[in-house]
């Protein structure tokens, strides 16, 4: 019975930790109203770094080039592609006079290093305000640049945006991908609004060129295979220089992975960067994930043994209800309403997936971005 008592009180503590996260941190974004961005005409350099993306570029690049914004250039970086990416760039440059092409060749020191390619693109850009997205991304409106640029104010040097994934009907994998994206976004938006910005996503991220040079570019994490977005934000973002932009017109959508193995490979690269976050961020994020995992493990064990099951059921239901409200409101805000009813189910599988990724990353190295 002593062992069961320990499990029970551990479960109570875990539920309290989870409630603290949801009611103190994650509610910040859930109940935050989008701030109407100011009309802006600051010159913007949109930067797209692509490696072997000819088909995606043909489909999605026009949505960037046809933005309704008075003054912007599009810096197209070809990161040593072996397909026709460069030819696609050149084709579009014949039709648009605001394109700048940066053709990157592999070097021995920076072989297949996206950060090296991005550095060359940033240096070649003409303007001080940089807006980043990926080759498989499309802005949901033609006012994307206007929305993101409008979030820059006098002291703001970083703007965190939302990059979602397109929906695929009757696909559990697609729902898992989109739920994990919503949960991540609710975290980095909430932490930023709480004065502790820790990451952003390169699918929709903006910062200034002076800030990039202040950081000496990506030099502090150049050898890390990924993290051109989140590690830069983790290094340079503060409560005073970071803004969030989550108006529906500011979103981008990307092509989601079609197979579980491809998604796991992508997430392994993303998760590998967390080890390089600031210690305070690693602690808070690690405690949140550990408490998620233990909530399910201890809850299931106690319920299966029917130990103080009335209290366990009540605490279990309370935590699920709070999560449903907080993440549900965030999901609706990010145009992911179809996920709300499945939140507990999706969370369970995402937690198991993250555990598998964590174990795998401890035993083998991740590869380069492409």
Q: What letter string, H or E per element, gives the SSE order?
A: HEHEHEHEEHEEHEHHEEHHHH
Instruction: State the low-pLDDT regions, or none.
Output: none
Q: Strand content of the residues, in percent?
A: 5-15%
CATH architecture of the largest domain: Alpha-Beta Complex
CATH superfamily of the largest domain: Spore Coat Polysaccharide Biosynthesis Protein SpsA, Chain A
Q: What structural category do the secondary elements indicate?
A: alpha/beta
Q: How does the overall form come out from the CA principal axes?
A: elongated
- Distance from N terminus to C terminus (CA atoms, Å) equals 53 Å
The side-by-side strand order for the widest beta sheet comes to 3-2-1-4-8-6-9
How many domains? Answer: 2
Rg from alpha-carbon coordinates: 21 Å
Determine the mean pLDDT: 92
Keywords: Glycosyltransferase, Membrane, Transferase, Transmembrane, Transmembrane helix
Protein name: Glycosyltransferase
Enzyme class: transferase
Organism: Formosa undariae
Structure explained in plain terms:
There is one protein chain. The protein has 370 residues and is α/β, with parallel strands linked by helices. The chain has 2 domains: 2-30 and 280-363, no CATH class; 44-259, Spore Coat Polysaccharide Biosynthesis Protein SpsA, Chain A, CATH 3.90.550. 51% of the residues lie in helices and 12% in strands. It contains 12 helices and 10 strands. Strand 1, helix 2 (54-65) and strand 2 (72-79) form a beta-alpha-beta unit. Helix 1 crosses helix 6. The termini are far apart.
């Amino acid at each position: 019975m002593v062992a069961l008592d320990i499990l029970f009180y551990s479960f109570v503590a875990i539920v309290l930790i989870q409630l603290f996260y949801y009611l103190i941190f994650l509610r910040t974004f859930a109940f935050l109203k989008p701030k109407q961005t100011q009309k802006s005409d600051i010159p913007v350099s949109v930067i797209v770094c692509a490696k072997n993306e000819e088909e995606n570029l043909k489909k999605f690049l026009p949505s960037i080039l046809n933005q309704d914004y008075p003054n912007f250039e599009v810096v197209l970086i070809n990161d040593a592609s072996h397909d026709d990416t460069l030819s696609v760039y050149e084709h579009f440059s014949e039709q648009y006079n605001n394109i700048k092409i940066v053709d990157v060749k592999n070097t021995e020191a920076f072989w297949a290093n996206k950060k090296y390619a991005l550095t060359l693109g940033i240096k070649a850009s003409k303007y001080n305000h940089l807006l980043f997205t990926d080759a498989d991304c499309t802005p949901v409106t033609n006012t994307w640049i206007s929305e993101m640029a409008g979030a820059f104010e006098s002291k703001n040097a970083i703007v965190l945006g939302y990059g979602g994934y397109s929906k695929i009907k009757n696909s559990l994998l697609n729902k898992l991908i989109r739920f994990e994206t919503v949960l991540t976004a609710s975290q980095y938006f909430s932490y930023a609004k709480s004065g502790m910005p820790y990451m952003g996503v390169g699918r929709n991220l903006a910062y200034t060129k002076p800030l990039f040079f202040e950081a000496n570019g990506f030099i502090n994490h150049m050898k890390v295979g990924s993290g051109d977005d989140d590690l830069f934000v983790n290094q340079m973002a503060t409560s005073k220089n970071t803004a969030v932009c989550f108006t529906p017109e500011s979103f981008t959508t990307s092509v989601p992975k079609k197979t579980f193995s491809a998604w796991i490979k992508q997430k392994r690269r993303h998760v590998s960067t967390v080890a390089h976050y600031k210690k305070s961020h690693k602690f808070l994020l690690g405690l949140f994930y550990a408490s998620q995992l233990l909530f399910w493990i201890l809850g299931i064990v106690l319920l299966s043994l029917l130990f103080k099951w009335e209290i366990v059921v009540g605490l279990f239901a309370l935590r699920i209800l709070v999560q449903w409200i907080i993440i549900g409101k965030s999901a609706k805000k990010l145009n992911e309403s179809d996920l709300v009813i499945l939140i507990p189910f999706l969370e369970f599988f995402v937690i198991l997936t993250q555990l598998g990724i964590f174990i795998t990353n401890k035993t083998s190295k991740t590869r380069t971005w492409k």
